[in-house]
Specification:
Length: 235
């Protein structure tokens, strides 16, 4: 893909403030979506792994719904719920938060379509652990919170880290839901589409190349971090 790119156009894209800002916005919005969703996604994954309750199948279905539906349809649904005409959107607007045409909206769309990757990975991590470890800790005087944070969470951390990486990666690649909810400020996938439509493949290639190369570097470093943590646990 790099060889197919005009080097002069690639150089001009690197110097293009709009390209760089769109890529940084994409990475930042996906990161915020991942970090915020971790606070509710990890407890939800633990609940699904350790407890049976009425409506559990419905909850699992709702979490995995974004995997099954077209993402432009997801964007329309988010626009209806979080737009200014629905009471949830009005509530957030009264708090000074708008999801239409803002970075908040970008992170919301990314979070909705990518949350299943985090929840499912974390749930698999909790399911891989013997629940008797927590029970033993409780019999030795540890509280439920202490047993979770000192035993369960560290042992499932590799699964959770993998889920976070997958969620961030999925968020970065999101197009359909974001373009419905927030066309501007513009993220890299929408900028690639815009340049393809207006100027052709020659000018869309460089933006795609820059985004792919940057993501490869970041995810390569994250995988190295995960591998080093795994070796440290085994040593």
């Amino acid at each position: 893909m790099v060889l197919a790119t005009d080097l002069e156009v690639l150089r001009s894209s690197i110097e293009d403030a709009k390209v760089i800002s769109s890529i940084l916005l994409t990475l930042r919005a996906a990161l915020w979506a991942t970090l915020v969703c971790a606070f509710m996604g990890i407890p939800m994954a633990y609940l699904l792994a350790r407890h049976n309750f009425f409506g559990k199948g419905l909850v699992e279905g709702l979490i995995n719904l974004p995997v099954m539906i077209p993402h432009n349809a997801a964007g329309i649904a988010l626009l209806m719920v979080y737009g200014p005409r629905f009471f949830i959107g009005k509530l957030f607007r009264d708090l000074g938060i708008s999801f239409v045409g803002t970075e908040w909206g970008i992170s919301l769309a990314m979070a909705y379509v990518s949350l299943p990757f985090l929840v499912n990975a974390a749930r698999d991590g909790f399911l891989s652990l013997d629940p008797r470890l927590e029970k033993v800790a409780r019999t030795l005087g540890a509280s439920a919170w202490s047993a979770f944070f000192r035993i369960t969470l560290p042992l499932a951390w590799r699964y959770i880290l993998t889920g976070k990486i997958m969620m961030w990666a999925r968020g970065i690649s999101e197009f359909g839901a974001v373009i419905i909810l927030t066309y501007h400020p513009i993220i890299a996938p929408i900028l690639i589409y815009e340049r393809l439509e207006n100027y052709g493949l020659k000018y869309a290639y460089p933006v795609a190349v820059l985004l792919i190369l940057l993501c490869l570097i970041i995810f390569g470093l994250l995988r190295l971090l995960a591998s080093s943590e795994r070796r440290r646990d085994l040593s």
